[in-house]
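Exercise 4. Each item below gives a protein and its sequence. For each, produce the structure-token representation.

Item: 4-aminobutyrate--2-oxoglutarate transaminase (Geopseudomonas aromaticivorans).
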Amino acid sequence: MDRTNASLLQRRQAAVARGVSQVHPIVADHAHNATVVDVEGREYLDFAGGIAVLNTGHLHPKVIAAVQAQLGKLTHTCFQVLAYEPYIALCEQIAKRVPGDFAKKTLLVTTGSEAVENAVKIARAATGRAGVIVFTGAYHGRTLMTLAMTGKKVPYAAGMGLMPGGVYRAQYPCALHGVSVDDAIASIERVFKNDAEPRDIAAIVIEPVQGEGGFYPAPVEFMQRLRALCDQHGILLVADEVQTGAGRTGSFFAMEQMGVLADLTTFAKSVGGGFPIAGVCGKAEIMDVIAPGGLGGTYAGNPLACAAALAVLEVFEEERLLERSQVIGARLSAGLRALQAKHPSIVDVRGLGAMVAIELGVGGDPHQPDAELTNRLVARARDKGLILLSCGPYGNVLRMLVPLTVEDALLERGLAILGECFAELA
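Answer:
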């Protein structure tokens, strides 16, 4: 059978639902660390990382060995029927890493959307309230509740009608676009005045650095004022660390750099090193509010994924990937700022740790998003062997999600390719 990108994508079109999008017209065959090879044998440098899933790279030997060992023991029992040690051990290890010197407990599920949805369930049970405040530009998932929380209707909720109620949106602070910390706090107060009293709000859910929303880090001052506001009104602060977690920002969880603690933390993506695992970790007294049977899932905390995640945590320690994240972030930022000096279309270079992005504006105007140039850059980079992803409410942000295990030469090669693309197109 013909195994070319074109032939397989033709089969995909006939077999796969149209709503499942695909950025690059490539069918991957195999991968190693920071490179992917397609079915035609062409190698690509991967700066997408499976959308922030591969901080430890493709097929890290320690992760694969852990999964292979677990594969010979058991692949499934459903933890609610028969427990197994990897689930328990992973909960212990996550609790050690979530910031906060208080007793913690953890729930494991399968996807980031599940994690956020369960955090809302826990917050509602703990407070006896139903409302949730989220932010402009937020991305929290694709289930009905998390779609209501996500701040981008097209394409994620297009044609699906109204989402569940009780979700209120405040402004995310962004100095580049004229939203100050005071403005953002005032928008929460407007929710309290116009939409829902504080006593009706169970949780405020925030990404410490927005992911799909454009890689905007929350100012520390804002996080501190948000924490104080939650404490004043008995509202739980939920940190959605699905994309920021597992070392992407230079600390295992981004909240370590925010000067305040969350009541509940969601995690997923790179924690599993390519295997589906997610969860919620928080204050023990909050996590324990829901009675047995109220949390869980058939595949939640699968043994193979737990084994992979435990290996990922070991890799972080052994290879000092938190330090490596900071080094990669500094190199990316320096390289991108050098590009910015040459190309006015780059209106901003920003990020935290290795969670770095550039924003493009027509003629250097941050108020005129240049999605067209962004798309052309993504396509030209692909032609040159570099896989990139865009993001942001207007699709004009290029984000860097290269594995933290990338070799220095490949990191520099990726920056060089991006430089070539700007020289040709910008």
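Check: Residues 321-342 form the longest helix (22 residues).
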